């Protein structure tokens, strides 16, 4: 705390800033209110201001320039309106708490020091010369996050500016009243952070702008790496830093990068809702948010029933449920690998010489163009042309073939039949459609011109004659063409969509002969259980289903054949929970967004999917993706979410991981062993009630699987009323309250208290599930309780007993 004098001065300054803000807001108010109407009004009067005269060439030119001028004026006015509105909104945002930090900085070579107050937006006084508040993203404000008092420097476009920071202060301001002022010698004082972290969990993630830590600031402001990898312990602020980074990039590159040019891949749709308020809170628009599954479903969802990653993980967790389990698991790992990616590339090369599979183009049960003919045509092209380019050539050839087949088709009896069966209404409809097209475009159909020449102005004909539907023979011919054209339209569409390639057959063929596959796989060889992997994959394909691990390779093969699909608009790609994506998926994302810089945030300690990617070790495929020179790796080891006791307890499950708890104290985790399920449910409900009484209102009962969630939900609701919410993968919004949720859906989010429903050795015993258990436990901010009706999971057996409390055997 500061002394009374300083406090007084700060309070007075705060009042002055608040006054200036209010004055500026009310100054802008009349301009801003009704801005929308004004802009609409200008648009409405647009044509009144323009004299349209096109009689002569000069008049036409004059009209043209007058429109251009009017247009330029309109867009300038709209731009300045927009800017004023932005300014107005940012001042509104500042009003309740204009700043949160201050540094005093004396630049080398100058005698006086400048006071720099830092807030969520900049605010200058009337003359616009001196800043009363600096936006946290300005270069000078970076010192607030990077330095303790003493020597300090910051980067500007003109070079580095060094000097001395003589003071660093933090504020808590509510309703323009000072609540707290701390002078701090640490980077960002512990006191404020203690207070922030001690608060309850929310259904929405919060901005950390006032307490960003130095290493987080490095992530936020990195502007040079093509690939930025953040390996950070559970609760180390990866997601928080990522969102601040988005806000920073939007600020720094304002006018060059828009929010929709930044994409965040999230672990599940519920997570989207969880993080959706941070950017608006910082005065920025939200970036685009999606999940990898949504992307896959967009491209493959109509052709297949796609397995999602949650079904895949459920499968992985239930070895007893299926035969061929080992093979499937081996397949999951293999299909996620760079080896498989390479095998597919070799396969595409091989297809350049042989083995292509096509689908005949059929019409009315006749094969118009056979697969065999396509194959002959395809392999007649120069073999040095790339596969996808040859496919494009074939596509053009098919469209030409189809055009000549379309002409021939008019002779077929079915066309005449169809014409005969057109009732008067359909006839009239077809005719008027024809008329409309002729009127609209000069060359709608290739025959329009010819028709117009022969029959003159159709409009005149329609008006002048009584019986306009009494066509002559040639008119009938036109309708015949139209009929065939309509019927051939879907065929053309299919060709344009490359449906003449049998991609399913080609993917399946890859899992055909082992000897052939070995040549594709090269020295990497085939994985264990290859025969069974092949059988499972083909069987699934036959049922028009696709395993999650097959979806990305399938899309990749499709693109090797059809040409790469790229998005060149996106400039920044963020992947959260990055450990859950496979090396294959990363290679795919890199191809998909060739102009985007990537920021991948994850924790290998929470890698719960079989396809996990190691983010940070020397052999990481992620580092290889853009090469070491273009990659920056940042490690976060400080964990902010949980109390020291919870971090000490959870980190003991992952020996070897460097995790440093933030020094916030709380109760030790509590282990309770009960006699049976009913007793456990009773005990859990008692504990939930006790936690609620302590003021915790975000409580999660975390289970291993969806089935266990249902079982827990039933057991708990059978015991009494109490509002519980069952979370499934379909749940879209994240709300406060008491939830029952499978661990893999709780990824990335946090709760005041976490209750592990079943921490028995029966449920968690395999090494592969250790990280899932760890992930579940690390969701807790303040309280962690674990239950079992049998032996404890082996992950806990080695845990030092001093790290937890043990409950009674039976509830009292
Ligand atoms: N600098 C900070 N100031 C205040 N709070 C912070 C800071 N860094 C992190 N936190 C808080 O710590 C908690 C965990 O942060 P976040 O969810 O971003 O971590 P994470 O690394 O993404 O976690 P996980 O990998 O476990 O999902 C959040 O409540 C966040 O607000």
Automatic annotation (TrEMBL):
Signal peptide: none annotated. GO terms for molecular function: DNA helicase activity; hydrolase activity. Residues 211-643 form the UvrD-like helicase ATP-binding domain. InterPro entries: DExx_box_DNA_helicase_dom_sf, DNA_helicase_UvrD/REP, HelD_bacillota, P-loop_NTPase, UvrD-like_ATP-bd, UvrD-like_helicase_C. Its EC number is 3.6.4.12. The keyword Ubl conjugation does not apply. ATP binds at residues 232-239. Keywords: ATP-binding, Helicase, Hydrolase, Nucleotide-binding. This is DNA helicase IV. It comes from Paenibacillus auburnensis. The gene is helD_3.
